[in-house]
Design goal:
The complex is a heterodimer of chains A (277) and B (312). With 277 residues, chain A is of the alpha/beta class. Chain A has a single domain, classed as Thiamin diphosphate (ThDP)-binding fold, Pyr/PP domains (Rossmann fold, 3-Layer(aba) Sandwich). In chain A, helix 10 links the parallel strand 4 and strand 5. Chain A starts with a helix and ends in a 6-residue tail after the last helix. Classes of the chains: A alpha/beta (277), B alpha/beta (312).
Amino acid sequence: MANIQALIDKSQWLRLELLNMLARKKKGHIPSSYSCAEVVIALLYGQYLRFDPRNPKARDRDRLIISKGHAAMVLYPILADLGFFQKEELEKFTAPDGILRLYADNSIPGIESITGSLGHGLGIGCGYAYGAKQDGARNRSFVIVSDGECYEGSVWETAMFAAHHELDNLIVIVDRNGLCIMERTEKCMRLDPLEDKWRAFGWKAVTIDGHSYAEILQALDLAKENRTKKPFAIISRSVKGKGISFMENQAQWHNKIPSDDQIAQARKDLMINCIVG
Amino acid sequence: MNNAKELPRDVFIDVVLEELPRNPNLYFISADLGAKALDRFRVEAKKQFIHAGISEQNMIDVAAGLALEGKLVYVYAMAPFVTLRCYEQIKVALASMRLPVTIIGVGVGYSYDDAGPTHYATEDISCMRALGGIEILTPSDTRSVAETARLTFSRPGLRYIRLDRTFLPDVYGEGDRRFLDEGIVEIEKGKEVCIVTSGFMVQKARAVRDRLLETGIAAGVVDLFCLKPIRLDAFRAALESYDRLVTVEEHFLSGGMGSAVLEALADAGMQKKVLRLGVQDQYYFENGGRQHLHKLADLDVESIANRIRKFL
């Protein structure tokens, strides 16, 4: 079991790092990154994901695909911290001489696939999982999708395929922050009952508080121990913009760049860690 | 005369099946399109066959995941569905990541003549040609289908392979591999004019040539096997002796093979008079078969010959 206090500390660190990236280059999707921050931290620091930063393409690594590609930046400070690339790259986010782009692709160490257009990551992660099963390998595929992404029909094509082929080495985490770009998902087009939908497609499914490490770790333990021959879905209820008072649950902040005053306010907000357990 | 005994898809799949013992990393995925050879494949190589169901988008993304795992992947479906239905998947997952996946489209042009516009592939060239880093090949006979299949494992890459649904008579003799080496082959020499075409329409071009010979016109016939990329040196060598070209395609004119020829002429710094013949800018809802559709589109032998006579 991972040390929860250490993870909680990472939450505050990661949010500040991301805010710094945004403040420097006036680019980035902060709210979507913050809503899945705890899940990503738990995966990479909680020993759920097998990887080797010195050998990012090692055959036996687990795969992590952030299919909601607009939030790819959430991984960058962590990948730098773990040694996948130099920390200086964070300063060069979106710069011509930097390797880190607004949307990620597999030219970046630690990134498994291009993402950015929604509805691809799960299928690609599924291909990984299928290949691993065929090879008798034990590696898993973790895919983080957004809830709005579940509007894409291709997500459900893959959901059927993965269940039929009994890919219990495939784990999807749905970042259920309840917002697409324009408005609340339930106003735009109803997604609930989302957990039931995954279950109906033949998946094991659980719903958790996506900002509670206790619940995230419990769900990831279940996913890791899963031998039911069913792929595993975690619906992670979250808050878009979690931690910045004026951004939380506000659709307008999806890709809006805050003013310097607002960045100062955000920094102040983040001085108190929004994650408690 | 049609001397082919096997359908293009069976020829292709049999060659891939033969390769399997040497290449256990190979995966063949079908979005619910069968073939006699695929029935053999599914028995002999059960593990290497995946039935994706009628879900082309997922098929392409899964193929990408497998290719990222180091597998050599084939995706197979009817031509209109394996291109347009999952176009963005091909762009994002295959083309942008430069994955060596072979896309096999069966039934190009009006191959599925009785089925109607949903099953016609008369836009696939324009669409697939627009993608970055993809090779597009249209084999015109059984031998070129088999050689194309061999190419997919001897030199893996991202390719769209356009197969006709019907039996294709011989164009190339035993051991003739010019289409692979050059991508463009002058299969009939001519004088006044040259017909540039590919695939199923090569036979039609030959018939047009015969018809024109009756009135003393010697039309050459060129098979543009590799639609993308066009190798300019080979293109120049095949066409420089002609003053006039006629492109003939079972495809819309916007962005199709004729457009590719015009672009190649410009890129090669060549000036020719060009007549582009293809499908009129509309969809046909008509019974009566492929030849009937060609008549409607002015792509029957008589119409093409007449239009060429006028062009000269």
